[in-house]
Amino acid sequence: MELVKQSSEIWESQGSLKDIERAARVCYKSEDKITEDDSSAIKLVENLIKRKHYAMLEFGKDIILYLDDLEAHYFFVRFLHLSCFHSIDFLSHDCHNGIIVIINPRAGLEIIEYLESDNIEEESEVAISFYNAFIFNLSKIITGDRKILKCNREISGFTGDIEEKKKVTVKFITNRGVTHELVRHRLCSFAQKSTRYCDEKGDIEFIEPPWYDNSKNVWDSSNLFCEQLFYTEMNYKHLRNFNWKPEQAREILPNALKTEIVVKATIEEWKHIFELRCDKAAHPQMRDLMIDLQNQFVKQELI
């Protein structure tokens, strides 16, 4: 058993492929499979799409498309039910009498899947234009061509500059109780270490609470806390020896279990998170984590 302190780290973008791969591999703790080139990322993204694990694609950069029809907005209204619809932005562009669509790869793929199931040939010209442009841009992501992630002029005919919303990705090391609160913020993308697939081998790591007191008094509350974690670790390993799978043995793991979660959000959403989670009414462990991250944002002039 080992106690570790919680922490946070702001990730700099390495391009869509690497950003998607880094987030996805946190879930399965397979970071050792990352290659310096894009080969491991390409293979992983292809598998994610094949298995329809689209959530990790939210960590890729947005695709910007120009649709030469103002009716395009009404086309997208059909997809308001999508869980990731918050990642679609519309910008009118009057001089071209069209609309600019800034769309996350996940949202785009879910729309494409819907169109394919509904016979694309019978769709409107707007739908077909979106379909062709999005598929083209997505294929460039998968093959590692990051230059195409901005609006493609050959397809869109758009030549202007677009100011994208600044998004920041953060990797947290904290406990599962804190992450249960963190994922309540809906306008974010999340990738969390899986207790289903990750076996807690060796010394199980737990997060040290900010109020933890390393006292030598045998009856001290902090020692009782450690004692409980020790028995939890021992019993988890006993269950694994009885051939319980990690997804079964995890039933006895506490909120204090160390976990890793990657969160991506706009600057506006991070400000909202800080407003709520740095407040004195917030959980002390969440507040401790977010105040430190807020200081990092200030230091890097992100807010």
3D structure, described in words:
This protein has 303 residues and is α+β, with helices and mostly antiparallel strands. The chain folds into 2 domains: 15-156, Gyrase A, domain 2 (2-Layer Sandwich); 167-299, Gyrase A, domain 2 (2-Layer Sandwich), CATH 3.30.1360. It has 11 helices and 9 strands. The strands form 3 sheets. Strands 2-6-9-7 form a 4-stranded antiparallel sheet. The protein has a 3-stranded antiparallel sheet with strand order 3-5-4. The protein has a two-stranded parallel ribbon with strand order 1-8. A hairpin with a 4-residue loop joins strand 4 and strand 5. Helix 1 crosses helix 2 and helix 4 crosses helix 5. The longest helix has 21 residues, at 221-241. The relative contact order is 0.16. The model is unreliable at 145-161 (pLDDT under 50).
- The poorly predicted ranges are 145-161
Total of DSSP H or I helical runs spanning 4+ residues? 11
User: Which CATH architecture of the largest domain would you pick?
Assistant: 2-Layer Sandwich
Basic shape: globular
Main beta sheet strand tally, sense and closure = 4 strands, antiparallel
Q: What spatial order of strands do you see in the largest sheet?
A: 2-6-9-7
Task: Give the termini separation.
Answer: 38 Å
Number of strands: 9
Mean pLDDT: 82
Q: Could you give the order of the helices and strands?
A: EEHHEHEEHHHEHEEHHEHH
By secondary-structure content and strand pairing, the structural class works out as alpha+beta
CATH class categorisation of the largest domain: Alpha Beta
Q: What proportion strand?
A: 15-25%
CATH fold-level topology of the largest domain: Gyrase A, domain 2
From the alpha-carbon coordinates, what is the Rg to the nearest angstrom?
Answer: 22 Å
Q: How many domains in all?
A: 2
Query: What's the oligomerization state?
Result: single chain
